[in-house]
Amino acid sequence: MTATAAWARTPERGSQLVLRLMARIALGLGWHVGHALLHPITLFYLATSPAAQKRAARRYLTRALGREARWRDLWRLYFCFASTMLDRVFLLTGRTGGYDVQVTGLDTLRDAAVRGQGLVLLGAHMGSFEALRAIGGAGAPVEVRMLMHTDRGGASDALFDSLDPTRAAAVIPLGRPDSMLAASEVLERGGVIGLLADRAARGERMLRVPFLGAEASFPGGPMALAAVLKAPVVLGFGLWLGPRRYVLRFEPFAGAVALPRADREAALRDWTARYAARLGEVCRDHPYNWFNFFDFWDEAPEGGAGSGGEA
């Protein structure tokens, strides 16, 4: 079993009751109280996480940091993850007061919106995609829909959908007969179709490409979908910089992803490698923002407990 397959089959930690209680406390007593609670919550999850999960996270951090990761680095990774979860509660309910959000590369989206041209936005399990959805209030009022598998929804997804009823409607489920038609219609309206390109939520075809100094498995599906959609591709990252501080970064990636029939396999691998290379650069710049808690490089011994689920 590959690491990605193991991630997809690992149940989400945390019950819906606990998450709803935490959200109610944060919304009722304010962000500062919620933020203060993150410290014991992070300590609890770090202390109770499976050993394999912490080993995998430490291996990732060692690669991204360029030095041996320490316990403090693990803490920062888990705390960054918890912070973005707290912020999602406030962002999804429209309580954006007190947030400092910088935006770079917005002209790429704004110019496309003026032309009425749709875009494919490639993201990753990094920082906050909810922060990226805030671009509507940052000068680029465009329709943003996510194209993704919906069969891994857990307690956190149920909570966030209840906080923002429009969130579920912003997802176009993959695997349905009309999925690509719905995505194409969004692009024709000048909207944005988002794809998370660093993991596969089910057993789709994976490609081994260089990532942070060694080969790792990335799904080929996102690039194949981008090629089918025939729209310019932009990379998007909502990076957590500190308490209520984010930078939204948009970068042109390709005028279009082309997969010529004669050398489709090589082209698909090349596009995936380009994405992985840029993701690796961002991971080095913001190592605590990529939320990897499983054996991404398949480094665990054969038959060992090499992967843990997401925190």
TrEMBL record:
Alphabetized Pfam families for the sequence: Lip_A_acyltrans (PF03279)
Matching InterPro entries: Ac_Trasf (IPR014548), LipA_acyltrans (IPR004960)
Any one GO molecular-function label of the UniProt entry: acyltransferase activity
Coiled coil: none
Keyword Acyltransferase: yes
Protein location: Cell inner membrane
Keyword Transferase: yes
Alphabetically ordered keywords of this record: Acyltransferase, Cell inner membrane, Cell membrane, Membrane, Transferase
Name recorded for this polypeptide: Acyltransferase
Top-level lineage group: Bacteria
